[in-house]
């Protein structure tokens, strides 16, 4: 057994658009321990979002492996990968995290319903999370009618709802003011402390990087040392 919850090695990713090839990752590696918080920074275009989508199982790398609890996600069938993501991984992308056909409460409840949790437990958990991200009065809003910051806070609540083993977040505080930023960071820290969730945050915000125990920098598709 490995001491790492997530272990990605030898990651290459090439985007192909007609005759143009962009090499976004060139042999990136990253390992996350349970209960750790890692921050990833780096210049725009260095491959951070590509890496996060690959770790989340949303994008298959051109080469390399992503072990989650020892199982290689890149070798799973689409069904197996979907199950692995649902059970173990929470993701906050830079946009489009919410299901447009569900209100805020429905979005937060969705991962819990897919997990087969009982209605009463779901109601309690959704209520607690709405309070924690300050969206209790927005519970019946449609995603299209939320501000950028509200949508981002809702996305974080969705991502932590099912108490994932791994939480991956791409600029989770990009549109937030200072107060909402600290509410979101407190929620991530609570997930880490209570469930040993391993957190990876891609960020330009020093307040986010400050919460992390480890800071990594990505350049030209490779991750350097702290
Ligand atoms: N869907 C895509 N199609 C083609 N090229 C892409 C796509 N997404 C990202 N890229 C390119 O891959 C490189 C890495 O992008 P990205 O992972 O988004 O970096 P970062 O998040 O660090 O800004 C960039 O050169 C970017 O233009
Ligand atoms: Mg990005």
UniProtKB/TrEMBL annotation:
A Pfam family recorded for this sequence: ABC_tran
Superkingdom of origin organism: Bacteria
Domain ABC transporter: 9-226
Any one GO molecular function term: ATP binding
InterPro entries for the chain: AAA+_ATPase, ABC_transporter-like_ATP-bd, ABC_transporter-like_CS, ABC_transpr_LolD-like, P-loop_NTPase
Keywords: ATP-binding, Nucleotide-binding
Gene3D superfamilies: P-loop containing nucleotide triphosphate hydrolases
PROSITE patterns: ABC_TRANSPORTER_1, ABC_TRANSPORTER_2
Protein known as: ABC transporter ATP-binding protein
């Amino acid at each position: 057994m490995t001491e790492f919850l997530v272990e990605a090695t030898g990651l290459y990713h090439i985007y192909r658009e007609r005759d143009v090839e962009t090499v976004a990752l060139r042999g990136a590696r990253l390992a996350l321990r349970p209960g750790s918080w890692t921050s990833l920074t780096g210049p725009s275009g260095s491959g951070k979002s590509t890496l996060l989508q690959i770790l989340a199982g949303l994008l298959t790398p051109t080469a390399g492996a992503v072990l989650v609890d020892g199982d290689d996600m890149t070798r799973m069938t689409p069904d197996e990968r979907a199950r692995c993501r649902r059970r173990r991984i929470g993701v906050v992308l830079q946009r489009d995290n919410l299901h447009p056909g569900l209100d805020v409460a429905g979005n937060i409840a969705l991962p819990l319903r897919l997990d087969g949790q009982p209605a009463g437990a779901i109601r309690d958990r959704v209520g607690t999370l709405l309070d924690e991200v300050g969206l209790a009065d927005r519970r019946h809003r449609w995603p299209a009618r939320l501000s950028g910051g509200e949508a981002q806070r809702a996305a974080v609540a969705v991502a932590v709802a099912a108490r994932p083993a791994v939480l991956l977040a791409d600029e989770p505080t990009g549109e937030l003011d200072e107060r909402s930023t600290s509410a979101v960071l407190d929620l991530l820290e609570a997930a880490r402390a209570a469930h040993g969730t391993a957190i990876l945050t891609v960020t330009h915000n020093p307040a986010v990087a400050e919460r992390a125990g480890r800071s990594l920098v990505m350049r030209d598709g490779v991750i350097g040392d702290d």
